[in-house]
Amino acid sequence: MLKTFLRRTNSLVPIVRNASSDSKATVWPRKIFSGVQPTGALHIGNYFGAVKRWVDLQNAGEDVTYCIVDLHSITLPQDPQVLRHNSLQLAGTLLACGIDPSKSTIFLQSAVAQHTELSWILGCMTTMARLTHLPQYKEKSAKLKEIPLGLFIYPVLQAADIMLYRATHVPVGEDQVQHLQLAMSLARAFNNRYGPTFPSCEALISDDISSRLKSLRDPSKKMSKSDPDPKSCIMLTDKPEAILEKIKKSVTDFTSEVTFEPDKRPGVANLVTIHSLASGKSPQEICDDAKGLNTGQYKLLVAEALIEHLKPIRERMEMYTADQGFLATVIENGCNRAREVAEQTLVEVKAKVGIDGFSSLVRSHGAVSHRPAKLVV
Fold it and tell me: What is the rounded end-to-end Cα distance, in angstroms, of the chain?
């Protein structure tokens, strides 16, 4: 498994070198791409495990592009009005968490038509057998009687998302690594067939506790907004009283002491992880400070720290979502920047594939006859 650990740094890793089909080294500038679906409010696992890292990358001076992947969200039925609302709300949430449109490109996937164009080209270069073996397809299709085609081919669109911006690094969770490997495979296949065109991207996978937040109600499972139990995860939109109630109802165990033992005491360890991320203290420092407290008393400290950490984010979210015109302008500006980059890539791709339009046929085969064409019946 290809794994590159995310580091906080103020300097850039300058280049990625790929071996092309003609054995010459191709130098690609370091570019980072990631996307998030607008399928409801984000929870603290999304924030600490992904969005906060996006902000860190942005503030480190990286070339970053972040996409609201609304096309991916319709692989399963969505209410149109709710989807529009969620897309705007997500844009406001990203801004509230620290994404700066002057430093990052943030845009709406469906507004950049080149994503679907490149997806079709790449779809013609992969096989059904390869897509069938991807784990998320297996997991989601097992729950459906009739499987939408979009659910089957969305990893190809995901590859197109990445390749369109010639991303060299992609922050992902471990459950997405195989999809990233598909993008790497398609980049190699295209380069081998048509010449150096795309870099081979690498996964940026965190190795710290932020990627390991668990369900508050079942610490054997990852925190997820699709969990049927609303008390299982804390949303960024939750008010302080809701956060306190969810923390108080979180599952721990019958030992009252506060320790950080993820394997033996996952429920308590999950609370310590949340406390650590919200406070900036290490798990050991937290356990030392909590000596003499039982888990019931400790839960109040966790809730207090998390409420305090999320307060400014929630306030900024309310400010941004109240001004939908401003959010629409931010998205439009981001779409214009993304579209410019995407079009440059697609023009090159279509020329290499041979589908770059009528004008190229004229250039290749000489002047056009002015005699009217005859239809053969």
Answer: 57
